[in-house]
Amino acid sequence: MPRVSISLLALGVVAGIASFAWTADHLPLYSIRFLPYSIRAFFLFDSILAIIAGILFILSFRLFTLKIIYLLEVIYWWINYLLLTLTRVFPAPLIGRPLPVTTGPALIAFVLDIILIILSTTIYIFLTSKR
Description:
Layout: H1 6-26, H2 37-58, H3 60-63, H4 67-86, H5 105-129
Helix pairs in contact: 1-2, 1-5, 4-5
């Protein structure tokens, strides 16, 4: 197993915790009864993906040799960020109108998305630049 720096492992743990925080922000949205089931199912599915992403980040000490995982993490967090921001400007899928800009879960998710994009990109760049 190749040696990995402690700071890179710490980044993986911090990113995993941030991913779990993102899940904690979105999972309660599944229980909002007035939302259509398809939207609630999306929140549940996306929360499950974020849990898996968090586990992969925390298990980074075993998975750093699989660099593609971290590229997929970067893509996943960018998709989440773009879905969040673009549905505030353009009509949201399944709803047909832009979603309201709120200071609740959407703001927390926005900040966490940016943090997770930075962390996953940093990890991926560091892994691909090592020889």
